[in-house]
């Protein structure tokens, strides 16, 4: 988390494997640039992008400047700021499969430390496809400097493994090479301001917690919908799908924030202990229940914004008979005293009508209603909606009497909007998380057991889906997914909520 005071990290060398890739272009360099603008980086900071592509330092910086101009929340900082920031960036051409090349990293560290006259913290950021992670980690683990636990960290991007087995194997491998406190398993949803604010809303107020349980809550929904299709990421997504790409990590972590018991401190392991308890309490889905509680979909060809748009199977890097789901919805229960029998509905998908991530906490109806039935607008009146993005807000919906001589009761809303309440822009998730890595705060990162517990939740669904051939494609681009997704909540008497 961003420190309360402008506490800057010590001298740092950040190596980004996948420096020439999309994540660095869109997210990592823009985040570092914003940290630099806000004076959060050390005066002794150096970032080294690695990849097989052929760049000079200069051409690499030019490419990253394009990324900043397209994707940074602040695109137009003064030119001299970019000029001074970009001096921290270098490029090292290297094939990660070349075991002999890793000595160059130690040489770079020694040279920098000599130039600076101080010892630096070293961060290895693995922004590469999951299959490259074991090889890179093994080679890094052999570098003598990686034994220096207090100053060397490794960041591993999601998805962490492909399933429970490969995640366990990766955890074992990393555990043999690094101490747990050196390993940062990143899930960028935990770096989002609005996700972090769930803990503040719940545990810095006395107002909500007394009603945040099965006695008052009817159901909880978490939707992360995207309008985009694949955007050239077919090679990665085809081997992943919506359940692995979004639900196993981002949405389950959001669920943990909503459902967790109060931590007694914000020390990293205390928060992680509490959230892993939630994952472990999620009711195991039996194979024969999968079709009742999980829905998958894949968009076909169609019209979006008045234009023809290809179906998933026509996208680059996708098999013509692909079984990969681009939409997933699940119904889960958290078996504990607080949440027994409260359904948690999670859904996510590509090519949906809106880009939005929203949490809905629907409260039960008032126990007795003295008002005439015709005076009111239904029972779903008390609802708390937490807008994660793009609308960053919290909406409390309650019943009010409409002014006038007839008795009419309608739902109204009290709205807290970040935009109205705070001046300036909020930091992007990767700004927060990169700063946390540099300052050594692992609170917002996954521990080995959390990742494995999250895989256990989705494993029965993955296995059942693997064993069956779905009837794909089954939803129109620009729609809210397959019909079965609506039925998942409607059969319980509810409907999907976005506001
Ligand atoms: N893109 C995004 O918005 C997000 C991505 N992520 C995660 O980040 C990771 C990277 O994704 P993304 O950046 O999109 O992928 P890209 O395909 O754009 O980038 C892959 C990178 O890996 C490098 N690479 C591949 N093979 C080698 C090799 N043998 N040696 C050295 N470098 C190699 C490529 O460099 P080169 O070709 O030059 O060798 C390239 O820089 C994935 O795990 C993804 O899930 C997570 C959240 C969002
Ligand atoms: O990790 C991922 O997240 C993005 C969505 O992130 P958001 O911050 O824009 O909500 C998703 O598009 C991508 O498929 C997935 O890999």
Task: Give the strand line-up of the largest sheet.
Answer: 8-11-12-7-13-14-15-16
pLDDT under 50 segments (min length 5)? Answer: none
Largest sheet composition: 8 strands, mixed
Can you list the ligands bound to this structure? NADPH dihydro-nicotinamide-adenine-dinucleotide phosphate, ligand LXAUTJHC
Instruction: Name the CATH architecture of the largest domain.
Output: 2-Layer Sandwich
Round the mean pLDDT to the nearest integer and report it.
Answer: 93
Q: What's the CATH H-level superfamily name of the largest domain? A: Dihydrodipicolinate Reductase, domain 2
The first-level CATH class name of the largest domain: Alpha Beta
Shape verdict = globular
| Count of individual domains | 2
CATH topology of the largest domain: Dihydrodipicolinate Reductase, domain 2
Q: Tell me the β content.
A: 15-25%
Number of helices: 15
How large is the radius of gyration?
24 Å
Structural class: alpha/beta
Question: How helix-rich are the residues, as a percent range?
Answer: 25-40%
Count of strand segments: 16
Q: How far from one another are the termini? A: 28 Å
Function: Catalyzes the oxidation of glucose 6-phosphate to 6-phosphogluconolactone.
Active site: 250 (proton acceptor)
GO biological process, one term: glucose metabolic process
Biased composition (Basic and acidic residues): 304-320
């Amino acid at each position: 988390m961003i420190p309360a005071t402008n506490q800057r990290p010590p001298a740092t060398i950040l190596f980004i494997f996948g420096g020439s890739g999309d994540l660095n272009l869109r997210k990592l360099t823009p985040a570092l640039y914003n940290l630099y603008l806000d004076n959060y980086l050390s005066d002794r900071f150096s970032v080294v992008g690695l990849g097989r592509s052929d760049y000079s330092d200069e051409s690499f910086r030019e490419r990253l400047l394009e990324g900043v101009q397209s994707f940074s929340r602040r695109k137009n900082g003064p030119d001299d700021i970019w000029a001074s920031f970009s001096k921290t960036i270098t490029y090292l051409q290297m094939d990660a499969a070349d075991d002999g090349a890793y000595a160059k990293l130690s040489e770079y560290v020694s040279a920098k430390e000599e130039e600076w006259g101080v010892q630096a913290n070293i961060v290895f950021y693995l922004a590469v496809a999951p299959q490259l992670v074991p090889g890179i980690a093994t080679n890094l683990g052999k570098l003598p400097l990686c034994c220096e636990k207090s100053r060397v960290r490794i960041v591993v991007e999601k998805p962490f493994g492909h399933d429970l087995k490969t995640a366990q194997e990766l955890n074992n491998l990393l555990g043999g090479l690094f101490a747990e406190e050196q390993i940062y398993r990143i899930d960028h949803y935990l770096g989002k301001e609005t996700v972090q604010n769930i803990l503040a809303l719940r545990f810095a107020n006395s107002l909500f917690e007394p009603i945040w349980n099965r006695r008052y809550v009817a159901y909880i929904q978490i939707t992360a919908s995207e309008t985009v299709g694949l955007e050239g990421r077919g090679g990665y997504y085809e081997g992943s799908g919506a359940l692995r790409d979004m639900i196993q990590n981002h949405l389950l972590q959001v669920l943990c924030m909503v459902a967790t018991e109060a931590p007694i401190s914000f020390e990293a392991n205390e928060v992680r202990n509490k959230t892993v308890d939630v994952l472990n309490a999620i009711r195991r889905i039996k194979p024969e229940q999968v079709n009742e509680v999980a829905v998958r979909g894949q968009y076909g060809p169609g019209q979006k914004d008045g234009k023809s748009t290809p179906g998933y199977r026509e996208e680059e890097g996708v098999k013509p008979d692909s079984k990969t789901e681009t939409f997933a919805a699940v119904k889960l229960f958290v078996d504990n005293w607080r949440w027994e029998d409260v359904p948690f509905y999670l859904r996510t998908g590509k090519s949906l009508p809106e880009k939005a991530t929203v949490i809905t906490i629907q409260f039960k109806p008032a126990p007795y209603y003295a008002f005439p039935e015709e005076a009111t607008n239904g029972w779903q009146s008390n609802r708390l909606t937490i807008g994660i993005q793009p609308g960053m807000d919290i909406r409390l919906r309650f019943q009010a009497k409409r002014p006038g001589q007839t008795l009419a009761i309608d739902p109204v809303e009290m709205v807290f909007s970040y935009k109205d309440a705070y001046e300036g822009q909020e930091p992007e998730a990767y700004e927060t998380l990169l700063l946390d890595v540099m300052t050594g705060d692992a609170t917002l990162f996954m521990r080995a057991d959390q990742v494995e517990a999250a895989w256990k939740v989705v494993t029965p669904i993955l296995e059942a889906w693997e064993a069956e051939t779905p009837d794909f494609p089954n939803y129109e681009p620009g729609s809210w997914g397959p019909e079965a997704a609506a039925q998942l909540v409607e059969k319980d008497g509810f409907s999907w909520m976005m506001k």
